[in-house]
Every structure is written in C-alpha cells, then in structure tokens.
Amino acid sequence: PGSSHEMLSHPWWYWLATTLLFPFLLHWIFRPVLFDAFHQSRSITSVTEDTDLPRYNDNSLPSHPPVVLSIVIPAYNEEDRLPIMLEETVSYLFVKDKGAAAIEVIQILTANNDYNHDTQPHPRYYAIEILVVDDGCSDGTAEAVRSFAIRSLPPPASHKNAATVFLSIRLLSVHPNGGKGGAVRHGMLHALSSISQQRHPAHHLLMADADGAADIHDLISLCRALSPSTSVVVGSRAHLVSSAVQSRSYVRNLLMRGFHLAVRMITSVQSVEDTQCGFKLFAAPAAETIFRSVHLNGWAFDVEVLTVCGRAGIGVLEVPVRWKEVRGSKLDSGGRWRLAVVSVGMLRDMLCVRFCYESGIWKVWKDLERKEHIMSNDKYIDDKKERKNPYQTNIWQPGR
Known about the structure:
The chain is of the alpha/beta class. It has 13 helices and eight strands. The protein starts with a helix and ends in a 41-residue tail after the last helix. The model is unreliable at 115-119 and 370-400 (pLDDT under 50).
C-alpha cells in the first residue's frame, strides 16, 4: 500500500542530502546564466592594453594604416608554445618570399570592399595586427609577447605594384582568468572597438589558438572561401578524423564521438562537422553581431558562436585545414578525469545555450541595438544609410 509510505521510509540523512544537493545541482545546471547575469551587473573583469609595445615595424609611417586583418590569439600560461606560434605566423606572412603571403591576404580581403573610388582611393598602406589576449596568465606569457614584439618585428611586406603591408603586435591583458571563450570575446570586441587605428571596410578577424596547431598556411584558403553570402569561415579537421582516432586513447575517442552526437541532438548546429577547431575567420560586421551576443566563457563557446550565426542568418562555410597535435593542451593536463569533467560541463553548456536562446533569455545582438554603442560624435540614421565609421563604436567595457 502506499508508495507515499515507502517514500517516507527513507532515512533522515537521505532527505538532508537531497535538500542540500538539489540547490547546488540547479546552480551547476544554470551556472552560465547566473554568471552572465552577475557579470553584466558588475564590472568584475579588468581589461587593459599594453601601450608600450612598438605598434608598427616602421616608425616613419605618417599615420596609422587601415587594419584589414586582426589575428586574435587567446592565451593562458602559454610562455612556451606561444612564441613558436608567433614566429611561424610572422615568418609565413612577412618573411617568406618578402611578405608575399601578407600581400596576397590583403589583396583577397580588399578585392570586394565598399570604398568609393572617386573620393576614397585605395590606400598605399595596409596593416595586419596580431592581438594576443593574456587571459589572467600566471607565467611569463605577457613578457614573452613583449620580447617577441621588440626583437622580431620584420620589415613591411612590399612588392612592385602592390600596397605596403605593415605588422602590428598588440597585447591585451584580462584579469582574472575567465576561460578561452571569454578571452576570445574580449579580444574580438577590443579589436572591433579600438579607435586608435583606422579600420578598413574589408576588416576581418581571425581566431587562432596559441599552440599553433592549425597550419597558418591555410589562412589563404579561409580568405578565398569568403563571399557575399559567407561571412564566417571555420577551419575543419573532419577529414583527419580517421588518423586522429588511431592516435588517440579509447576514452578520448569515446568522448569525441559523444560530443559530436550531442551537438547534433541538442543544438541547432547541423551543417558544421567540426565545431571546436580554433581557426575561424570572421568578417567584421558578422564578428560584431556574434561577439556582442555570446555569453559562454568555457570550451563550448564555439557551439554558441555557430548557434548565433544560425539565428542571425550569417552564412558559414567549413574549409578543411591541416592540423598537428601539440603537447601541452590544457585538456590533457588533468588526465582522463579532467577530460570527463570538461565534457560534462560542455554538455551542460550546450543544454544551456539551447534553452536560453529558445526561451528568449539570451538574444542575438541586432543592428538596431548599435544605437546604444555608437560614439557621441558618430552619426547614425538608419540601416540604409552609412555611419561615419561603420565599425567605430564605444571602447568596449566589460559588463556592457
């Protein structure tokens, strides 16, 4: 007789444990929402840029050249791997063949721009900037960036009948540590909102990992994949799955397959096979919409980025890239236990993303909301008319 009698027959410690654990369980499930609300109500993060770094590899420049490509690199305790990645990137873009790759990147990205050729001829100078985001590092990452910027700036890239391309290295410090997703968001918005440099209409932003696992030579492939209907190009390792499966442990392969299944079942991201590749290229308008919308700071932020793309109607294309396993991954530092904990947390975050966007708790940042971010000396009329500078907004502050 009675199931209620059986329920009451549990010992007192059972009910005490249930009563105490239930609030913690709810807090863990909705932690991204609660943290975001707290973060928005308080400026708990300090974001500063090191202004002492040499800005360009030529002090004779009369003014700041327009930036066409910003390479945003989130870094947490990467003093060993980051200098190698910076060396490979700078060598490929500016040293090899006298900077032929940098010039080709500029030519591709500026091929279809909205310059008025009658009043705004093509500039003679362009810039590519590398923006490293020090995400609360406790090692010598910041000093490694400063040292590299001082001693390793190559000459500008210049070929006959081509514009000169300059390199700028910038360092953004974020404290305290907030996770990879938070570091990428800070870096992207800082690059978009900086008014110390002129932004070119063809301004694009590349997200790249500090370990250099993605081959920087594939940047050209990402640039070529852009089109009027494609504003986001994501690198993909899907073609390398078979070789990766052979080299990884059974646990990692199981978690990898489970994660891909969860992405298909839980989220609205269906067309991208590799959501987690840390090599993504964004057109500036798309980047502004995406990174003013995203909330997650952890490993699952890539899924939210692609979710926002789908909800905002931003075209996404997946391009195969070459990839190498680099020792020192934060996921490997804690062994199988940490990998399992991170996987469960990512599952929680994906559920949270689906629930928050479907319920309207989180919303995509719309163009009309730019009115709240425009500088007082800018002129906004409507969507059909141009502003004085379409990308120049207020200096972004945490919690805005």
